[in-house]
Structure formats: C-alpha cells, structure tokens
Design goal:
With 337 residues, the protein is α/β, with parallel strands linked by helices. The structure holds zinc ion (ZN) (2 copies).
C-alpha cells in the first residue's frame, strides 16, 4: 500500500495535548469544492465547540468520525451541542439547518446551544418552521425519534465573556467588517490553550487586544497581488471588510502567536505559497494555510487529513474494507508510503 502521509511539522513521538483545533471549513462564499464554508471545532476533553457553521460542516465533520472511517469521536455529529457564530453572512451560517436537524436525526437529544448575533435567533426560528413537516413526520410517525434534539437555546452575543463550563471559556469581541455591525471574533481559553478566531474583519485593534498571548490565531486574509487587479469599487469594499496579507503579517508580528493560521482566504488567482510569501515578508513567526480537515494540536503538531483522504479517494479503490483499514493506519500516523 502506497499513499502519501502528510504530516506538517509533525514531531515524534506524538504528544497529544488535550485541546485540538479542527478546520472543518476554510472557505469563503466562493463554492470551492475543496473548501467548505467557514467552520471550525475546538475539541477539548472530547467535547466539540463549533465556531461558525458554513455549508458543508456536517459532512466534513462526519468524515473525521469513527462512523465514517475517521478516529475523532468528538466529530460524531451527535456530539454537537455548542455552536458560536461570528456573524450571519451566509458563508458562515448556511449549515445551520444541517446542524439543527442532522445530529438530531442521528440521535442527539440535547437542545443545541446557539450563540450569535441577534439575527441568528430569527434564522433558527425560520429553519425550524420551514422544516415543520419533516420534524413532525419524524416525531409523530413510526420513526423512533426524540422530541428535543432539533431545538435550540439562543444566547445573544455581547462583548466579553459569553460562555463558560468546566472545559472552556469563550469571550466574544466586536470586529470591523465594513458596515456590518454585528460581527464578532472569539477567544477560546481551555486548560492548555488559547485559540483566537478573527471572524471576518478588516485590521482590528480590538482583535489585537483579545489575541494577546494567544497560542493560535486563526485569521482571515486576502491576496495583496489579487487586490491590485480589482476595480476601485471592489478595492474599497474589500479594504473595509477584510485584511490583506501584509496587514495580517504586521498584526501577527505585533501579537506574536505561537501559530498563525490563515483561513477564509480570498486567493484571487494567487497560490497558497504566494499568500504565505506575502505574509512572511513582514512576519517572521509560524504561519500555515488552513485546509479543510486539518487537525492542529499545537504549533508543532498538526496533520492534514485532507491530503490523506484525497490520496485514498484518488485510488478509486472500490473495496470499502481496504479503505477503512488505510484510513485507520493514516489516522494512527503509520505510513508505508
Ligand atoms: Zn465570510
Ligand atoms: Zn462576512
């Protein structure tokens, strides 16, 4: 068996600390088949906390779960009980119907705890209303469905501490997303890590304050080279709503996170390497480009499962047992390639 095992900066032996960051969707509104809409999971003590739920979130997560050949039990969607939304732009929130309904159909009984800007409440209400017939049929028909797991408890975000339990503390902060007032970033503090998510934002001093001392900063970015090719009107729009490679480089140089992860990237024709080069021209710390299904344990331990899965699927092997065995080996870190 020969497949490429990609382990970025993998150290040996693997020492898994308790909090992992999982990239479920590194995309933007562009329907790139390789990049689902914005979504991440912070997994600590086996409990997943979701940040954003862009289109594709549920299938991407499932592909890492044992039910579908993966090895991360927290990515069994039935475990999705907490979700935090940065802002209601569709590329960050279109997976909400999937997140409300699919884990329930799979057996989730608890209500989903939803944290987000005011608009999220109406969105969740409308989705439940839109699927009333489906929900009623499952509950009142012959399907053995519980009566609670599609429901949600909504908490409106405000700046400061918005959630706390024995695993995690979540702080929200306002970011600068053009005239989009209700846009937030998050700072997650677990027992062993601080992970900060920028959400969608232009350069933000508030973010810099909240990201101080972060182990991992997940930040959005656009290509500077691509920006130069845009019309004046688009340049004005993007400058107000998003952050360029040079801008995030300078911000990261001030914050000095252990690891900067670039996600929600507007490539505009640039390659991932060109994006990295622009950032590195003004930033000398650790920086990587996010891929869907990347699992990050620390700045020195991360695995890009997408590459593993792509290689396996490229083989076009129709034997599901072989594929499952290969996946287990890949997840266990063994490579015979
Ligand atoms: Zn976005
Ligand atoms: Zn946005």
């Amino acid at each position: 068996m020969k497949y490429k095992f990609i382990a970025l900066l993998l150290i040996s032996p693997m020492v898994f600390s308790s909090t992992q960051l999982i990239i479920l969707g590194s995309g933007t509104p562009n329907p790139d088949p390789e990049r689902a809409g914005s979504s991440y999971a912070v997994l600590t003590n086996g409990v997943p906390y979701l940040v954003d739920f862009g289109p594709g979130i549920i299938r991407k997560a499932a592909s890492l779960s044992p039910e579908w050949g993966g090895q991360i039990n927290g990515m069994n969607v039935i475990n999705f009980e907490h979700a935090f939304l940065t802002h209601i732009h569709s590329d960050h929130s279109m997976g909400l119907s999937d997140l409300l309904l699919t884990p329930w159909i799979m057996g989730r009984e608890k209500k989903l705890k939803l944290f987000g800007p005011a608009g999220l409440k109406g969105m969740a209400q409308s989705i439940v209303k839109a699927y009333k017939q489906d929900i009623n049929y499952r509950i009142h028909g012959t399907q053995p469905a519980n009566k609670t797991g599609y429901m949600y408890e909504f908490t409106k975000l405000k700046e400061g501490l918005v959630y706390q339990d024995e695993n995690i503390e979540v702080e929200a902060f306002k970011v600068s997303h053009g005239d989009f007032n209700d846009a937030f970033g998050f700072r997650f503090t677990s027992t062993d890590k601080v992970i900060v998510f920028s959400g969608d934002t232009g350069p933000s001093k508030t973010l810099e304050r909240y990201a101080a001392g972060a182990d991992i900063l997940v930040h959005e970015v656009y290509s500077h080279a691509g920006f130069l090719k845009k019309t004046k009107a688009w340049q004005k729009y993007h400058k107000a709503h998003h952050t360029s490679t040079f801008e995030i480089g300078k911000i990261a140089q001030r914050i000095k996170p252990n690891l900067l992860i670039l996600s929600h990237i507007l490539f505009w024709g640039s390659s991932p390497d060109e994006i990295l080069q622009e950032v590195k021209s003004v930033y000398d710390g650790n920086v990587v480009i996010a891929n869907d299904l990347m699992v990050i344990n620390s700045d020195r331990e991360m695995r890009d499962y997408k590459e593993i899965l792509d290689d396996l699927y490229d083989k076009n092997d129709s034997d599901p047992e072989w594929k499952k065995k290969a996946l287990v080996e890949a997840f266990n870190g063994r490579s015979s390639g």
